[in-house]
Amino acid sequence: TLAAPAIAQSNPQITWRLASSFPKSLDTIYGGAEVMSKMVEEASDGNFKIQVFAAGEIVPGLQVADAVMNGTVEACHTVGYYFWGKDPTWALGAAVPFSLNARGMNAWHYHGGGIELYNEFLGKQGLYGLPGGNTGAQMGGWFRKEISTVEDLKGLKMRVGGFAGKVMEKLGLVPQQIAGGDIYPALEKGTIDATEWVGPYDDEKLGFYKVAPYYYYPGWWEGGPTVHFMFSKEKMESLPKQYQQLLHTASQAADADMLQKYDMKNPKALKTLVANGTQLRAFSPEIMQACFKAANEVYSEMEANNAEFAKIWGSIKDFRKDWFTWEQLAEFNYDYFMMSEANKGEL
Amino acid sequence: TLAAPAIAQSNPQITWRLASSFPKSLDTIYGGAEVMSKMVEEASDGNFKIQVFAAGEIVPGLQVADAVMNGTVEACHTVGYYFWGKDPTWALGAAVPFSLNARGMNAWHYHGGGIELYNEFLGKQGLYGLPGGNTGAQMGGWFRKEISTVEDLKGLKMRVGGFAGKVMEKLGLVPQQIAGGDIYPALEKGTIDATEWVGPYDDEKLGFYKVAPYYYYPGWWEGGPTVHFMFSKEKMESLPKQYQQLLHTASQAADADMLQKYDMKNPKALKTLVANGTQLRAFSPEIMQACFKAANEVYSEMEANNAEFAKIWGSIKDFRKDWFTWEQLAEFNYDYFMMSEANKGEL
Lengths: 347, 347
Description:
The structure is a homodimer. Chain A is of the alpha/beta class. The first copy, chain A, has a domain of 165 residues: Bacterial extracellular solute-binding protein, family 7 (D-Maltodextrin-Binding Protein, domain 2), CATH 3.40.190. The first copy, chain A, is built from 13 helices and eleven strands. In chain A, the strands form two sheets. Chain A has a six-stranded mixed sheet. In chain A, 53% of the residues are buried. At the A-B interface, helix 1, helix 4, helix 10, helix 12 and helix 13 of A face helix 1, helix 4, helix 10, helix 12 and helix 13 of B.
């Protein structure tokens, strides 16, 4: 027999495992990893496979970054702020209260040095992260009773993602950490008074409108959260160059795709929720101002004690000022006109 | 010598040529094709090359779709509305007055059937199109004198892209078709009274602020225009499957990347323009209402006479109503709060 001919194998066969923080039932956010995996597999002619596992299948949803760090899996799909308890810097690549909106985060990540800055931090944990989805500005969540003043927040037990809870604590709210599947019964029994998740499409599936009729906006703690693909830095660097590039391209495409999917699905779900009795409420200006003040106090403390946090948050803040100044010209005035015509029944 | 071994070549060597409608000097919009080309080349290990030619290098900027249709090149990077004179349906995949904004267009293209509907139309011209960039809501352009009323538009000579000109004609404006490089001298000499292009980053390079100080917003004719990659349908279908998939993935990534780049560059450019004396002005509510009414008249005429236009515009309109209803909850209120804080100097 002949020896194998000396032809470089352009697309070597590689299989990776990716652990998701999300359940399969949430097809938009869980689906982002499947979208990316499919893109990679098809563009490599079936040779680079990334197997996606839902939360709990091989790793609990909130331990997926650790699973990459300890070598259990090569990649995960998660939100950086889940790990803010290790260090608040984790949250900055994802979302913190009163940060950028989705387009602002995307501009900062891809062309404002965000990907590089966040990876200076992630690299020390043995990770390499790329944006892998966005939900757009989230809703502020479901409340069993109306809340109008800061006083109404005092003692309120609310299921809310980590970092934002720290800000809310300053206002007397009692944040609760509850895994996705346990939220509904807790809300139904009154063990908690309120919960937030994402927006109409996901929230309708989770059924919160049946037990907490007041649906508040905006979710000031998630103006445009970035979901991330986090890869083992070592395994990423040992891939053939073309696969590394393919991961970048597929991640950027899947990142965009998640927001596109939410944006198509949320408007219809909102109509269904309202038809089912959901009461829409805006947070009062008093509450918004108090939360903004509390958030800034938290940031000042963290900046004083954490140089890495201060560096990345400084970069976001610099752009944030310019972004929200520019956005109020063409974008805001176009949208404002169109929204007004929608409300007049002219669209 | 041995014959070549019978090993399937996973990544065959292919070289395509792509004609851009844009000059190299506009690095965001011209750059979109280079971004896509680089993604494809790198992910195929250098085997699938797409050579990008700027407007005029091998094909004039406004004839690139024809060049794909007649087989001169395999692909182009352009904006569908450049060809609305052939049939107004061309414009619908890109932008028409008072249509969706950038996020709305993206949702519609990728998850609302937009890509498929537009390709039903493009396929008849032998093309296959994929979104390949977006500028975000554009500015309304540069005017030598202030305009406050609809009366002020009468007789005004303005360089403006095709379809919008048809709407403006109804209000007495005289639209002018002028190629990019000739706009500045025409504006300087007073041959035209006004011009529009994109937004601060591009417009600053083109220097319009030096000869027309009033910079209006919003560009109601381009709330979120989609730039397209258009491929020869036949050549696309004859590619190996993995290259077809790679073109889809790279196009979606490059599509997102262009908006991300504009969003990072526009805010800084706006500050420079204002420092150089640019006067920002909003179109008056009277003008906006008159333009909206004129646009709706144009649409009614086209829908009555063009079934293909009516079908696609109907699909956009259905979603437009729901989109601008949903957007005014979390997204609008979040942005409004942040813009207010920006204006108070609190960011």
